[in-house]
Design brief:
By secondary structure, the chain is an alpha/beta fold. The chain has one domain: Rossmann fold (3-Layer(aba) Sandwich), CATH 3.40.50.150. It is 30% helix and 27% strand. It is built from six helices and seven strands, in the order H-E-H-E-H-E-H-E-H-E-E-E-H. It has a seven-stranded mixed β-sheet, sandwiched between helices. Helix 2 links the parallel strand 1 and strand 2.
Length: 187
């Protein structure tokens, strides 16, 4: 696993041993960032189910300002910390050990431009997290939520005030790009 573009292009990232963490492939990661294009520069990133931090570190490499990485698995957290240290990214990251759903139960005042949701496949966690995002306004008005699921999973489209703007499939992976409805109507 490596950084594919930006200031840390070509740098390798550590991975979590075992089968519990499934890092986003370079092909899928490249597709995500090609679609996001100009939305990454100076973005505030929230990475729920952060795993290795792969998506956040790619965003930081491409010019994102800061990333909050939320992960409950201790092995994954240690990997995130090591990756931040290897890249020199620690000053631009906040690493939180907690369940992604508990993140919303705090009095979160921050707003984010990019929110990555890459939960374990086939457990319904993407829809659960999206339900929290509907009722906890942490997405900036022009922000984007990027969800990675298996290709056989679906996202509930009754997600007012949000809407699914784009989906893409790559093998067993489906990407969902979600934004505020108002932003779509205005922009």
């Amino acid at each position: 696993m490596r950084i594919i573009s930006g200031q840390w292009k070509g740098r390798n990232l550590k991975t979590v041993k075992g089968m519990d963490t499934r890092p986003t492939s370079d092909k899928v990661k490249g597709a995500i960032f090609n679609i996001l294009a100009g939305k990454v520069m100076n973005a505030r990133v929230l990475d729920l189910f952060a795993g290795t931090g792969n998506l956040s570190f790619e965003a930081l490499s491409r010019g994102a300002r800061h990333a909050v990485l939320v992960e409950k698995d201790t092995s994954a957290l240690e990997t995130i910390r090591k990756n931040a240290e290897i890249l020199g990214a620690a000053p631009r990251t906040s690493i939180l050990r907690m369940d992604a759903m508990n993140f919303f139960k705090q009095a979160v005042q921050e707003r984010f431009d990019l929110i990555f949701l890459d939960p374990p496949y086939r457990r319904g966690l993407a829809n659960m997290a999206l339900a929290y995002l509907q009722t906890h306004p942490v997405l900036n008005p022009s922000g984007v939520i990027i969800i990675e699921t298996s290709s056989d999973e679906t996202i509930d489209d009754a997600i007012d005030p949000l809407e699914i703007r784009l989906t893409r499939e790559y093998g067993d992976t489906r990407l969902w790009f979600i934004q505020n409805k108002e932003e779509h109507e205005e922009g």
